[in-house]
Amino acid sequence: MTRREPDRMSMEASALEQPVPLHGVGGVEGVQPAYDQSRQPARFIAALEIAPGQRIADVGAGLGYFTLRLSDAVGPAGQVVATDINDEALARLRARVSERKNVVVRKVAPDEPGLEPGAYDLILLSEVDHFLADRKDFLTRLRAALTPNGRVAVTHLRAMRPPLVAAAQEAGYSIVSEYDGLPDHYLLFLQPSSSQ
Helix, strand or coil for residue 39? Predict the structure, then answer.
């Protein structure tokens, strides 16, 4: 899903060209201070309330801004599946996570989640939903990949919230919570409605 705006892609790419530690929360934290200030990665990961051992999908992972942080959060007993459609981004991400046994990097087709059914405690969509040809259809397809108590976390700039909320409701999701502690982004947690 790396059809990102050039300025965001170049900021992330610039940060990732620096030496990146592969331990501890914060893979690129501090390397790109302006971007980190906007995204607040430590606060963001804490808001996800990830438990060690969980299985998480980082959909549209791009260069992996959150992938290493998610890997740290799930620990060695958990797993992160990072997906994208862009070969260059995937190659760079594979190089970054080559030492990590709990990260799987996977190429997917546009608008196809490419996730196993019933396997994910959390599915993260970070700044990718506006690239989807049909948000409602994609969110509907994600439902099958969730565990019975699984959640979908969506984050984007605040101006992008209304179309996502409308699509989520049409796809049969309820907003179960929302985190409002990020400077520029919303963070919504969705679960399939019980009536679906």
Answer: helix
pTM: 0.84
Domain of 175 in residue numbering reads as 6-192
The CATH number linked to 165 is 3.40.50.150
For residue 180, is it within any domain? Answer: yes
* Position 146 in a domain: yes
The answer to whether residue 1 sits within a structural domain is: no
Q: What is the rounded CA–CA span in Å between residue 64 and residue 100?
A: 13
For 153-168, how does the pLDDT look when each residue is reduced to its tens digit (9 = 90+)? 999 999 999 999 999 9
User: How many Cα atoms are found within 13 Å in the side-chain-facing hemisphere of 173?
Assistant: 30
Whether 30 and 12 have beta carbons less than 8 Å apart is answered as: no
Q: DSSP of 90-117, one letter per residue? A: HHHHHHHTTT-TTEEEEE--TT-----T
